[in-house]
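User: My collaborator and I are trying to settle a disagreement about how two of our proteins should look. Neither of us wants to argue from intuition anymore, so we agreed to look at predicted structures for both before our next call. Could you fold the first one, then the second, and keep them clearly separated?

Assistant: That sounds like a sensible way to settle it. I'll keep them separate. The first protein:
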Amino acid sequence: MKKVILAGNAVTAEILKAYLDSDDRYQVVGAVVDDDFLQSGTVADLHCVGMSGLADRFPAGSVSVVMAMGYNDLNRVRASMFDRLKVAGYAIETYVHRDARVHTRHPLGEGAIILPGAVVEPHVRVGANTSVWCNVTLAHHSQVGEHCWIASGSVISGKAQVSRNTFVGVNATIVNELVVGEFCVIGAGALITKNTKANSVHLARSAEEWRYTADEYVKFFGV
């Protein structure tokens, strides 16, 4: 049984802890967050330490880390934690739920999360620190870059590419062979039928580009 700690102590960490607690491959022994967030956690019965005390409580080599943070600031917050943990010498666990179906022979990116009901078809590539939620389909030869969040029910069609730090909302569909630019926001239920520019927002069912950039959208509306 592998000992892991969660990077995060809020809603995403609660969800992943529930999955891990039911998985006999893992034992969750703690959590880590930036020091400023130590008092704001919501995960019960889990010893949480700040980054400043991590090495003393959970030395590198004694545990692996499961990235259990959300998609704040277009996944930049999670990416920052991922990078700092790597520099500090921690192994980041790639977690595939037993009820996910992964058929690609390409190695999944370090720290990727693949949750139940997700289907990763042959020849798919998934980047580091990318979260693929329940019932997602990553179709053949598609690519999802690093630090992305693919929400439940989304379909990334064959040979489509989703670039780094992009958020894809619930039940969105990316049509085959398209390229979604980096740092994009794809809204729930959006149907993407054209390539998208980097840092753009596509919310409506027609998925026409919004007048806001993705960074502006995050600042004013949150993601």
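The second protein, kept apart from the first:
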Amino acid sequence: MNLKNERKLQLMILAGCFVLFSILLLVANHVRPSEGGQEGLYYERGRVVELVYESTNPYFRYQTLLVEMITGEFQGMTVEAQNNLMNPRLPTFDEGDRVIVELTETSIQISSPDRGISHILFIALFLILLCLIGGKRGFLAVSGLLFSLATILFILVPLTLAGYPSIFVAVIVGILIIVTSITFLAGVNAKSIAAISGCIAGVLIAALFAFIAGRFSFISGYHIERIGFLRLWNPELPISGIFISGVIIAAIGAISDTSMTIASAMEEIKRANPTITRHQLAQAGFNIGRDAMGTMSNTLILAFVGSSFSVILLFTSLDMSWIQFINEDEIGIEIIQGIAGSIGIVSTVPITTFISAKLFSLNNRE
């Protein structure tokens, strides 16, 4: 396939992905879930102008603050808000600090520090560094990342909340993200086709394992942290598939990285040695895949361990027995998620290697 035809095919596939994205977006907006639970509760930005009073009572710590409202209905006005310090995670505030104010019909309280500006700066720094160091590839990676986030936030989330089958929606969204991001980054060629095929297969295998392991371990969406609050907000929400949906989304990044690494490395080997046989190319791909498989599985499992580190510390400090520890819901969820993603990575290696060797050797006589 010459470069001109490859570009045409790339544009056609990306156009098809955009059409599918638009259709799903329209459906998601059309079935946007009804409001509930938060009626009469608002959050706005404000700036502390004066510390009126600070309680030193260890049993009831709080601050009374005068806050100038920056956004919302009371913008420009100064209101008195209470900062409840009974929860140790809440910080104290001084004059000039920016805060998020929780307003109800009967009370005005400080909800949290205003982290919006700092978060935006951190994200902008990351994206700028990615573009500067990665050049054109970095810019394409940023575009793919933004598309993935938009797909999850504006399609997967509202469709799931609207009661659509969460596993089916997550699979469709996952495939859309995989095809779009890899096609956008690598074009349409043997490398991208092999990477897409291996990634989709690995993600589906990870989801299947999570489904089976969840059934055997009696773990479902009902065991996810804060799912009870979501259930109170929307009693009709189908909870059972949310756990599998989370596994699918979490596994895409690591599995796509593994599949692209293998396909890209095998393409370079083929270019360096055009006469290499399919068997030799496949063997080289397996060797590359084994290295990628080990590091990516380690990365994925450590990421899940890191996210639940506070839970591990809590259970350890309670001097739980090993039997009790391993059977806790939170630990079971992290184990299944980590192993499901790792099994997806392991499965991706032979699939991507086989497809890559087949595609890269089409013109070889063996």
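Some points you might bring to the call about the second protein. The longest strand covers residues 42-54. The two ends are 22 Å apart (CA to CA).
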